[in-house]
User: Which sequence fits this backbone?
């Protein structure tokens, strides 16, 4: 028989955890422990459970990715949907159904960043969270998990024009400190024509990206 909630809640699972990169409230990079789904299952068996497994549930269209019918538009004009998975967790006589969102750390997952690995990871994480809520095993790990900022970046929020802006600020500072523009070209082993061509790259790349999106 599986141990009680209070017993499993007191169990220290940190020695069995793996780690992922994240940031604390001060922006400092830290390692956050997480319990792998296979180790979670193993620990349940070691503490009295006879039957432990989880099964991804399917939509009425026959796939495991649940999504909202409504598109959301963020402040940058990007369209997005809310994606979730749904998992049934079985622990002896318990049957637990839970939804879990697909996230890129603390960022949303967009259509162009969706892949099978993220779906599979969300399903496994859903199982581990269901175990924590209903049995107490590993519950401590979830107390601060939702407030941590992941170091994984959402590339859709990046702007190639920011690179140009940083370069322009650096060049302006150099010129203000007395560096002649011709000396700048010489030090970079380029001429004025090549310099101007390079500075046009961000606009060209942006145009190229928009063309690809329309395909």
Assistant:
């Amino acid at each position: 028989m599986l141990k009680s909630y209070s017993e499993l809640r007191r169990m220290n699972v940190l020695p069995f955890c793996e780690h992922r990169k994240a940031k604390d409230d001060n922006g400092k990079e830290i390692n956050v422990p997480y319990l792998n789904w296979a180790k979670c299952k193993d620990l349940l068996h070691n503490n009295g459970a006879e039957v432990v497994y989880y099964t991804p549930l399917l939509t009425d269209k026959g796939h495991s990715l649940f999504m909202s019918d409504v598109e959301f538009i963020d402040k940058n004009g990007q369209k997005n949907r809310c994606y979730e998975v749904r998992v049934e967790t079985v622990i002896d006589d318990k049957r637990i159904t839970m939804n879990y969102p697909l996230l890129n750390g603390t960022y949303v997952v967009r259509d162009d960043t969706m892949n099978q690995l993220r779906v599979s990871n969300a399903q496994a994480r859903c199982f581990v969270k269901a175990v924590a809520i209903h049995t107490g095993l590993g519950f401590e790990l979830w107390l601060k998990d939702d407030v941590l900022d992941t170091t994984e970046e959402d590339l859709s929020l990046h702007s190639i024009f920011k690179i140009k802006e940083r370069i322009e600020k650096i060049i302006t500072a150099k010129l203000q400190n007395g560096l002649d523009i011709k000396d700048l070209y010489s030090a970079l082993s380029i001429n004025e024509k090549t310099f101007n061509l390079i500075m046009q790259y961000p606009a060209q790349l942006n145009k190229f990206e928009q063309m690809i999106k329309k395909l």
